[in-house]
Specification:
This protein has about 250 residues and is of the alpha/beta class. It has a domain of about 35 residues. It has eleven helices and eight strands. It has an eight-stranded parallel β-barrel with strand order 1-2-3-4-5-6-7-8, surrounded by five helices. The chain is globular, with a radius of gyration of 17 Å. It binds glyceraldehyde-3-phosphate. Glyceraldehyde-3-phosphate binds next to strand 8. Glyceraldehyde-3-phosphate (G3H) binds next to strand 8. It comes from Aquimarina muelleri. This is Triosephosphate isomerase. InterPro entries: Aldolase_TIM (IPR013785), TIM_sf (IPR035990), TrioseP_Isoase_bac/euk (IPR022896), Triosephosphate_isomerase (IPR000652), Triosephosphate_isomerase_AS (IPR020861). Involved in the gluconeogenesis. Catalyzes stereospecifically the conversion of dihydroxyacetone phosphate (DHAP) to D-glyceraldehyde-3-phosphate (G3P).
Amino acid sequence: MRKKIVAGNWKMNKNLAETKTLLLELKTKLTASQTEIIVAPTYTNLGSAVEILEDSSITVAAQNMHQAENGAYTGEISADMLKSIGVETVILGHSERRAYFGETDELLASKVNTALQHDMTIIFCFGEELEDRKKNNHFSVVENQLKKGVFHIAQENWKNVILAYEPVWAIGTGETASPEQAQEMHAFIRKTIANTFSEKVADKVSILYGGSVKPNNAEEIFANPDVDGGLIGGAALDAENFAVIANAI
Ligand SMILES: O=C[C@H](O)COP(=O)(O)O
């Protein structure tokens, strides 16, 4: 049985006080959830988030990390730093990191390696742009991102991998992939993993959908057999909305 996961990527939102308020609201609203819940506040609030969620089943992820162990990389955060405050999961490859911070497939492969060497769980994001879909290139773009970003991972390390398919045209736009488009792509991803590794790896890996998931569309997206949950942006910033989405699986 694959894990069902709903993760909230808070991006650059919520100061410390706001973070504490939202986390306390989530703790009260999500007590009965069977789904694995992950929240990714900004770096400055990760330590507080870990403390606040200590007695709950909600876990904390970082939104990014550097590939080096340590050194002269002003402004960067290492895997060891994250682990030292109790953060065991990291989002890598988000389209905003790729687009605004020049993160390439090669750089991401290196971050993936570092995170896995530290026994962290990665939420690896990828997805095509609107132009790719219009030209019917979306399958090859996604396959290429997977090949370059995660297909070098040793079979035994796939237990620490969560994939997040996020079509760039659906992120923060209010436009979402239709349930059919999401299922079609997720099935393609799973088949590609089965062909590259094994049916067992493909069956086990959770593939999340991200891109304008809201309380009113979560259920139909999550109902697809190859959609194992969601990576939620805007709607994760409100406890009520996030709880509805988390309970929609
Ligand atoms: O990481 C989350 C995704 O970028 C989705 O964001 P969104 O739900 O605001 O479209």
